[in-house]
Write a sequence for this structure.
């Protein structure tokens, strides 16, 4: 099969002096390695529109934080609810199939949070931070579903993660034994990732883009790895059962993610994330073991060597698997 | 598109003669995906810290009579960097382990040099010294990832050096209690001018590299200048954080003096700098888009959003003023978008 032109291969041809500067410039354009004028225009409009909507939303959120007492309660609520209503009317008029309508709904999701914050600020509800985010996540969902817009879903998933993380942070301080509360965001992200993978076969879905799945999966493994690292660092014999459950969950999550990646054979990202998670966990384990064994200064060098060897092995394995997948893809 | 098709297309447009043979480029693909490079970099960075700690503790008795002074640290750092450069040159291209070992050694060396310079002359010398070290490493290290990271680190060092020049509040030589560390710059034009003096050369360099990509590729400079281009674009997204007034991020990262407060109330117009940094994400995005490099576009978006949250936290202007600025900016951007859409329709 003929090799595809890419920048690295063009660069190697350039090194041999086979093409002039003008020819390489033309080659980059012909091969679609540089954006065409129409793509530049689309990029500029998307960027300006997105940045404009975010700036407006940030400006209104800053205003809520300013807590302008001189305005009075009605004035302050009107200041937030009027733009929210305007955004919804605009989205209804434009339709959620077009970018302006989608961005208006994104703006509405952000304004929902501002309204809730203003409500808490005005009436001193005494709610925990996670309750604010939980309400924001729940009340923002209709606009997110209506928008069918990936950045809007990403914002919503971020809110969901913040809710779970704030809840875990609160519970972790009050509970001294049992399972780590940080398993909640880990499991939530893992379930979300599985749902997103199931939806990935529908390329028109706003939830199908690869970057969204990657971000959710990375978040799941980040929380899972943090649970394992903390558990290894502060392990006590009395935690035996909780530790066993957490280890089993970590193993199951790793096996599931590796299994999905291997079944799909189209994205090595999951393997890189798993490698990073496992290198982190095993390094912590080795470090703890060496501290307990009073291994001395040499342990520092051994850990450094282990890190280099483990990451080298992982990179080689990922490259090998990538080549295998490519060969299988080309072989049909 | 295959090379056969490309050469036919180039011949049709008279860039090459129709008889020019189609080359047979090797099957080796581009550098590993960005996430593998992040993994490699993270592993080597951590290994570098452990390696430096081991070397310092192990060698101080032999060479430095048990005292860790600047001379010892500088010698250790320079030797490590030289060893890493040699390892890259000898075996880096053939062996992943050697390349990874060299990267860890180089990180250890850079930490050593930075600590040594800090011991010798404080934060001022660390920043300017590391700027020179990183530029030297871009030239000396024959490795894509290292060159990219060194280019990024050079711009971070440049931003930190200028920060230290203006504010003098970095953690290695904290100010006495009560001193704000802020120069009396209260005028908006001057504030913006200083900002431009710092960032215009970096953006100009990145833009020059992107515009002249074909020229340096034709001269066989792809191996050296590709990672530098990517490093500079990444730096335009990441490094403006280093220039923020009061170095509140230094304290947020836990690097500041114990008990210090993240901001003082007299930044004045300097409070606009995070907003300028958010706007700087736009050229970074455009440059990344020009290279069709989606991870760099994503990095610019991520740090643009982070800068807006920094704008919220930096003191010196009221939230009402910041709110008005953001609303005005939002309306301006939307109006510009509307105008461009009409013009291009």
């Amino acid at each position: 099969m003929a090799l595809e032109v890419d920048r690295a291969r063009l660069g190697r041809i350039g090194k041999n002096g086979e093409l002039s500067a003008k020819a390489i410039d033309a080659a980059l354009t012909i091969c679609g390695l540089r954006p065409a004028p129409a793509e530049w225009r689309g990029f500029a409009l998307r960027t300006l529109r997105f940045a404009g909507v975010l700036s407006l939303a940030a400006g209104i959120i800053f205003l809520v934080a300013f807590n302008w007492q001189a305005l009075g309660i009605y004035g302050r609520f009107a200041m937030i609810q009027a733009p929210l209503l305007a955004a919804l009317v605009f989205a209804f008029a434009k339709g959620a199939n077009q970018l302006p309508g989608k961005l208006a709904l994104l703006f509405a999701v952000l304004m929902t949070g501002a309204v809730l914050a203003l409500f808490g600020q005005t009436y001193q509800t005494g709610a925990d931070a996670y309750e604010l985010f939980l309400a924001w996540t729940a009340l923002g969902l209709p606009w997110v579903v209506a928008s069918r817009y990936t950045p809007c879903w990403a914002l919503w998933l971020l809110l969901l993660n913040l809710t779970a993380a704030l809840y875990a942070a609160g519970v972790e301080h009050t509970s001294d034994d049992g399972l780590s509360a940080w398993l909640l965001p880990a499991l939530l992200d893992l379930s979300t990732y599985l749902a997103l993978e199931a939806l990935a076969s529908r390329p028109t879905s706003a939830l199908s883009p690869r970057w969204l799945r990657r971000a959710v999966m990375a978040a799941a493994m980040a929380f899972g790895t943090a649970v394992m690292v903390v558990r290894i660092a502060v392990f006590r014999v009395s935690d035996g059962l909780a530790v066993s459950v957490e280890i089993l969950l970590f193993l199951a999550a790793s096996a599931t993610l590796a299994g999905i990646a291997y079944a799909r054979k189209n994205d090595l990202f999951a393997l890189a994330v798993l490698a990073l998670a496992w290198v982190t966990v095993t390094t912590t384990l080795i470090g703890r073991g060496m501290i307990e064994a009073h291994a001395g200064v040499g342990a520092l060098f051994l850990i450094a060597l282990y890190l280099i060897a483990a990451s080298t092995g992982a990179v080689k394995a990922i490259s090998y698997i990538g080549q295998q997948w490519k060969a299988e893809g080309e072989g049909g | 598109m295959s090379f056969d098709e490309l050469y036919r297309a180039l011949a049709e447009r008279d860039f090459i003669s129709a008889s020019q043979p189609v080359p047979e480029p090797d099957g080796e693909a581009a550098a590993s995906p960005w996430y593998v490079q992040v993994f490699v970099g993270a592993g080597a960075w951590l290994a570098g810290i452990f390696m430096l700690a081991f070397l310092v503790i192990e060698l101080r008795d032999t060479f430095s009579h048990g005292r860790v002074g600047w001379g010892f640290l500088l010698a250790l750092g320079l030797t490590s960097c030289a060893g890493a450069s040699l390892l890259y040159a000898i075996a880096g291209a053939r062996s992943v382990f050697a390349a990874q070992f060299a990267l860890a050694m180089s990180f250890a060396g850079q930490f050593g040099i930075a600590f040594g310079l800090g011991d010798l002359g404080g934060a001022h010398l660390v920043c300017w010294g590391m700027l020179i070290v990183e530029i030297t490493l871009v030239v000396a290290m024959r490795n894509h990832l290292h060159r990219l990271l060194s280019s990024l680190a050079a711009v971070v060092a440049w931003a930190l050096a200028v920060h230290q020049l203006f504010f003098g509040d970095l953690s290695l030589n904290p100010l006495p209690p009560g001193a704000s560390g802020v120069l009396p710059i209260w005028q908006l034009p001057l504030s913006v001018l200083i900002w431009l003096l710092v960032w215009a050369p970096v953006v100009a360099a990145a833009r020059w590299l992107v515009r002249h990509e074909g020229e340096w590729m034709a001269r066989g400079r792809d191996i050296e200048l590709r990672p530098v281009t990517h490093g500079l674009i990444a730096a335009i997204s990441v490094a403006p954080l280093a220039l923020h007034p009061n170095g509140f991020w230094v304290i947020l990262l836990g690097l500041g003096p114990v008990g210090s407060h993240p901001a003082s109330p007299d930044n004045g117009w300097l409070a606009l700098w995070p907003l300028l940094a958010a706007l700087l994400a736009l050229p970074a995005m455009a440059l990344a888009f020009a290279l069709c490099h989606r991870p760099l576009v994503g990095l610019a978006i991520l740090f643009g959003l982070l800068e807006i949250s920094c704008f919220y936290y930096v003191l010196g202007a009221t939230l009402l003023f910041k709110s008005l600025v953001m609303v005005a900016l939002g309306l301006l951007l939307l109006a510009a978008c509307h105008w461009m859409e009409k013009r291009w329709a």
